[in-house]
Amino acid sequence: MADVRNVVLVHGGFVDGSGWKGVYDLLKADGFNVSVVQNQTLSLESDVETTRNVLDLQDGPTILVGHSYGGVVITEAGGHERVAGLVYIAAFAPDAGESVNALIADPPPGAPVPPILPPQDGFLFLDREKFAESFAADLPAELAAFMADSQVPWGVEALNGAVGEPAWRGKPSWYLVATEDRMIPPPAQRVMSERAGATVVEASGSHSIYVSQPRTTADLIAQAAREADRAQ
Description:
Elements: E1 6-10, H1 21-29, E2 33-37, H2 44-56, E3 62-67, H3 70-77, E4 83-89, H4 100-104, E5 123-124, H5 131-135, H6 141-149, E6 154-155, H7 156-160, E7 173-178, H8 186-195, E8 199-203, H9 209-212, H10 214-227
Helix pairs in contact: 1-10, 2-3
């Protein structure tokens, strides 16, 4: 039986919390209390506030999980007293003073370039024709097309939001590296996870590995719940 029974899931940019459905179902079946944060992705500050509001509602120690940009959110919000551990799913894990823009400014040589369109009124979108290849290459074509057509506008301000004190400095962390990710290069994922001192699991999957491999994702979250220090 895991010591920690609460899980809070935080989505990334261009998508909303509904992508966690498969992971949610598995964790619920395993006896966890699961909450899904619905961030507006307008600014890091507002997303952190929304996430902390959900954490306030938890009745005990909680595993805080973030995908992609959600990793920035949990790095900042994870200092919350109820957070016992952090789980990064193909996510950004910034250090103090870093933002998404800072982390993507110098990609590894030969890394794929995400098909982000020029900002429109302060918001970013992915090229719909290239969405599947870059974001969801291992999902059924119909689902990838739906995700492309239902994109959530990602605020430029959110990409510029810098982390203060990263929660991973004081709390244990786990990281799922998606080895076929074409949004956040796997080498960058490995560097960030190593820097954070995370327990790392690697799996062959796209940036949408939390959708395509919910069992792998849920298993790592359950592992984090078992291993997290209850005293945190």
